[in-house]
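Q: What structure does this chain adopt?
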Amino acid sequence: MKGVLQLNSASNEHHPQLKPTVENLSQAIFTVNRHAKTAPNPKFLYKVKHDSLQKLLKEGKAKKIGLHYSRNPKNSQQQSDVLIKCGAYTFHLPPSKMDFTELPHLGNLDSSVRNPRSSISLSQAKKLLMTYTGLKEGQHHPNNRKSNKYEKPVFKKLGESYF
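A:
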C-alpha cells in the first residue's frame, strides 16, 4: 500500500500543478497558441487562448498596446489585430469596434520581435488555462454554428404530422 502512495507522489512531482501567475499563464497561452497553428482542430485551443487573454485583460494583468495589420487577412485585403502584452509575451486577438477608436495603429507587424521560449508542455498549458477560465474541452457553446453535416430531408405521407 505504501509503494502505491509513493508512486503517485512521484508522478505528481514530474508534472507539478502550475500556479496561475501572470508568467505561467502567458507561457501557457504561448504554448497553446503555438500548437493551435498546426492542430487538426484548433478551435478549442484558440477559444482557450481568447478567453484566457480576455480574463487577464479584465483583471488588469494584461494590456492592449495597439493595432497591427494582420499578416494573414481573411476575406479582405487588409485586417487589423489587437496587440496584447502579458508578462514577457505579446499576443494578437481580433479587435472589437471600440479597439479601433481607443487604440493607436502601429502599422505592420515587426517580424524581428519574438516571444521568449516556453518550457510548459501542451497538456500542462491546457490544464492551467482550462482551470483558470473554467472551460472544459468538448463543451458546446450556444454561439457555435450548426454542424455542416448534411441531413437528408424527411418526407411524410400526405396528412401526417412532422411533430
